[in-house]
Amino acid sequence: MLFQIIIALALALSLIIVIIVLRLRLAEYKRGEDHFRLTMLEQNKFFSIVSHELKSPLTAILLSIQNQERILNSIELSGVTQNKLLQASNVISKEIKTFASLVNSLVDLDGLLDISKISAGELYIDRKMNNLSTLVEDIIRREKPQLELAKIQLEILIQENVLVPIDKLRIDQVISNLLSNIIKYAPGKPAKLILSTTGDMAHLSLYDQGPGIPLGSQDIIFERFERAGTTASAGLGLGLFISKHIVDAHHGRIKVKSMPGSGSCFTIELPMID
User: Fold this and answer.
1) d(C-alpha 204, C-alpha 253), whole Å
2) Residue 171 clears pLDDT 80, i.e. is over it
3) Where residue 97 falls among pLDDT bands split at 50, 70, 90?
């Protein structure tokens, strides 16, 4: 057990060093140094390699710990010894998952690649007529374990058969990002999702009872590297920026209403006519 902890800590330190090097390299690239000027293809390849190298060892450690927990549950030990070993294993597992989450936030591969596409005017949107009601139901079903883990009671009001010309994967990305923000910033509190239509527009609203967004920040949260929550929250602040560009590409609109201390409401409006 101690050996696993030492390995995990050593690996965590190594990953932190890799992340620091990555961020320094990106900083140099942003300053326009000639020897760090990468083509779009080189950037994508670079981020793919870094993401893989960071995530693979974490996955291996988690699998090893999960296997150890299965073994502990299958062998006969005194109750006290088994409980102590399982508790220690759970602590390691929790910390590795927390670190993995931090890695995913710091090296947000999909987000950074989307930023590259947006900057280059190459964000591809494949709009086809889809049932938005069904898509929302599928997303909620997929996110249900995370909502339950965060102890969020989600009230759902979905109008049936709302047909909208959308890129299904991209709108899924937007809605999932909004739900993940509720899980991150408003755990343990009720939330509400409403899908409705007015005229030729579909409206999807997500209400939470989180800390809310300061009035001075509401105009900038859809900008690059801004976040919906507090400054202490992990992440690069790409989700809402990317979401806005995706919704804009659908000729729609995403907006927020919020009062500090009273929660927030994010609304997506999408035209139902192509």
Assistant:
1) 11
2) yes
3) low
Every domain range in the chain assigned CATH 3.30.565.10: 128-271
129 contact partners, CB below 8 Å, separation of at least 6: 163, 164, 165, 274
In the chain, DSSP assigns E strands to 128-131, 154-158, 163-166, 191-198, 201-208, 253-258, 264-271
For residue 46, what is the enclosing H or E element? helix 40-74
The two three-digit tokens of residue 92, written as one number:
């390691």
Reading the block at residue 255, the tokens are: 């907006």
For every residue of 231-245, DSSP letters joined together read TTS-S-S-HHHHHHH
Q: What does the alpha-carbon distance between residue 213 and residue 200 come to, in Å, rounded to a whole number?
A: 30
Residue type, 30: K
Which tokens sit at 184? Answer: 């991150």
DSSP element (H, E) containing 177: helix 168-185
Q: Are 182 and 205 in contact (CB under 8 A)?
A: no
pLDDT (0 to 100) of residue 34: 47
Q: Which residue has the higher pLDDT, 223 or 211?
A: 211
Residue type, 267: T
Give residue-wise pLDDT tens across range 2-17: 445 555 555 555 666 5
Q: What is the mean pLDDT of the chain?
A: 75
Q: Which fold has domain 128-271?
A: Heat Shock Protein 90 (3.30.565)
User: 23-53: b or e for each residue (b if 16 or more CB lie within 10 Å)?
Assistant: eeebeeeeeeeeeeeeeeeeebebbeebbee
Kindly report the pTM of this predicted structure: 0.61
pLDDT digit string, tens, across residues 255-268:
999 988 889 999 99
